Amino acid sequence: MGFLAHDAALLIAVLILGFGGEAAAMLASGNVTVPSAATLAHCPKTCGDITFDYPTQPPRLFLNDGDTELVDGIPFALPANSPGLDVAFSRSIPMISGVDVYNVSWTAPGRSFVASQIQLNFTGCDFDIYWLRDINSRALVCAVTCPSDGITETIAKQSCDGVGCCSSTFPTGGISSLKFQFVRRNNSNVEGQARGEGQTNRSSLWDRISVETDLMLLSWGFVLDQQPDCAAVAKNKTSYACVSEHSTCTYELIGIYPSYMCMCGAGYNGNPHVLGGCLPGYNPNPQKVNCSRSCGNISVPFPFGLEEDCSARQEFLLNCSDAASSTLIIGWDQYVSEINVGKGIMTVSSDALPVFGTAPYAESTATQDLHWAVANQSCQQAQQDISAYACVSANSTCLGVNSTEKFVSNTYIGYRCKCVDGFDGNPYILNGCQDIDECETTPGICGGPCHNTVGGYYCTKCPSKTQYDTAKKQCTQTKRQRSLLLGIVIGFGAGFGILLLGLSTLLFANRWRREIEKKQRRKYFLENQGLLLEHLISSDENASDKTKIFSLEELEKATNNFDDTRILGRGGHGMVYKGILSDQCVVAIKKSMIIKQSEINEFINEVAILSQINHRNIVKLFGCCLETKVPLLVYDFVPNGSLYQILHSATSNGFFLSWDDCLRIATEAAGALSYLHSSASVSVLHRDVKSSNILLDANYSAKVSDFGASRLVSIDQTHVSTLVQGTFGYLDPEYYHTGQLNEKSDVYSFGVVLLELLLRREPIFTSESGSKQNLSSYFLWESKTRPIKEIAATQVREEASEEEIKSVASLAEMCLRLRGEERPTMKEVEMALQTMRTKRFKSYQAAHEDSTDHSFSQVGYSVDQPSKRCYSFEQEFISSAEVPR
């Protein structure tokens, strides 16, 4: 049963030169003494350029068959794989006149060995090579021909494409023996060529057949006489091979049965077969100093490194292939753009992110970044060995990397380090976590005097009659209010005179204030290019309904001086108020955030363009007011809120959209976006498509709104480069990575809206486990493992057919493709949705052709009618009284 009773003797036999020295003598004599790292320190561990460790030794190693040579070092601790030897063997058979069939065989040197990953090269002339699987079965491996008599063996081996040489790869499973048969082809010239008749420059290829290994891995394990598990093997301490601390046993290697192997446990690397052989896999103190810590403009902080002995573990060694272009590579061809030691994330820029199934990397489905850990240990395990503990900086702490986030690879468990709150830097180096000066990094954090402390800060108040000056960062004296009273009334005459003077002064001050305000408004009007906008509007001879330039006084009256009770909503680009104009028209007035003066011309151009957009599913722009520092926009009022509120808000009072309404709204919104992309005079990219920007009018028809983030694109442009802007959950990942905006970015966001209609979930929702989940990632992941109908919302499954659910899901998946060029256009999306509605309407008609009930909504099939100029106050009152809100 035991290793030392059988397998050690076998290993000694198969290695011709054996162990050498003390270790070999002990094993060969049968006197079992467990070796340690100290007792083996004097033993040689190299043979030429080959390195190896106990239980084998040099100089040049052959196995007991005499021609199977060890060509690389002997690894004893390969995680998740059996130990393997990189070996080679060769055979050379001389050609014999009159003999047409030759046989070659190879057998593994003992039952502890099996071969895998085999690639062989065969050289010779005019032979078919067969693999003899058993007595009655053979398979053609490859064939060699020699069309030219003078072809040399060297040239044939360079290409090995069937001319004088052919190559073949064999199955990766455990193979204990190989048998081949070489059969000469029926060729009248063969015999003469073999004898060299008439040949003066005959190649050596005609004289022999050769077999050589291009690659061969010889796996080995400790063979057992019976079939116990690892626990049973470990009970016999005298024969158990896994003697190092932190070593583990793995039962039954592929192809060697029954058997077991030894590995170093989680967080350790080295030789598990000797005492003290398993050493910590993480080294917090690299041997080399003055290591390079950058590749171009990419920082490479410890524990990562660019040179040997500069990283904490071998897996953290990166390759700076071109510092001039900041080309930093991990693995074979994955390009690293950023390493965040605080968050334990590596940003990899590649068309296809790598999938690391083993430590220390795991790919996240939510962020598509690589998460990493310093060792495959828990924090508690890592802190037990302080010499290998990674969190060496003061004010650092240990964090677990576990299954709180869904990874592409199997769940990975390990630990990483971070600086505690109030500190920032590199927790993997001494004194790497430095105090954060919150008073400098976050100006105005206190609203008064701020005082930094180690790991925090505290605030104080300014003394009485002083105020805090943010520019000077100190308390200064307040400006005293001067009284407007010029004197004290002395007597009735003087008092009357002062009173008259005061009234006159007040009237003058009011007039002066109004003049100042008038001049200020005129100044803003001119700064906001009011004259240019007036000219653009008046020069549009085709516009039947001109965009109006409102005065600030009109809009203040319409909103009751922008009363807070008139606020309809707050967004990322400003605040929207409800207003009632003097003609009782109800409008929505958008008060945008402060914009740069350099953007005013672009703003005016956008107003001019948007004023020409006339589509029944786009909120109509009535006009603007330029008499404020930030221009105000006046839109048509849409009474029934947004699609987001109907789908997700708890304040919808139990009102639900039917599946017919969902298809109609999606079709209308797609048609509006298609019009913006291709039908308007200048293409408009919305850049913030989401369900909260799809409003619903009194008839619950879609109205695309909020063009605060939109961009105009001329006909000859394919994209525009902008600062990334949008809403998380809807943002196009390609736009996020490249900063190049095009119409396919709106298509991606619309795909998320389709998922909201189908799944009735928010774009970022809380899963059953309590973690935040991205809707698009959730849909793409779940659709691979479950039928689409099971993922859809209950109401959708009750109302929609399975074909309709699959069609919408397929359309959403196409919209969500990572590469923009693979997504459909908005016109194609609109046509697909229109086709779905047409099919549904026809099936409805077929099922109810004898019925008088024609309640099926056909809004989407009606001919476009000119939209009304405004939503009246009377309509708003009736709608708010009768329609659920």
TrEMBL record:
MF (Gene Ontology): ATP binding; calcium ion binding; polysaccharide binding; protein serine/threonine kinase activity
Identification of the protein by name: Protein kinase domain-containing protein
Species, as recorded: Panicum virgatum (Blackwell switchgrass)
GO cellular component: plasma membrane
Transmembrane feature ranges: 484-509
Source species, domain of life: Eukaryota
Its membrane topology: Single-pass type I membrane protein
Residues that bind ATP: K596
UniProt entry keywords in alphabetical sequence: ATP-binding, Disulfide bond, Glycoprotein, Kinase, Membrane, Nucleotide-binding, Serine/threonine-protein kinase, Signal, Transferase, Transmembrane, Transmembrane helix
PROSITE patterns, sorted: EGF_CA, PROTEIN_KINASE_ATP, PROTEIN_KINASE_DOM, PROTEIN_KINASE_ST
Biological processes, Gene Ontology terms: cell surface receptor signaling pathway
Species classification: Eukaryota, Viridiplantae, Streptophyta, Embryophyta, Tracheophyta
Protein localization: Membrane
Protein kinase domain ranges (all copies): 562-833
Signal peptide boundaries: 1-25
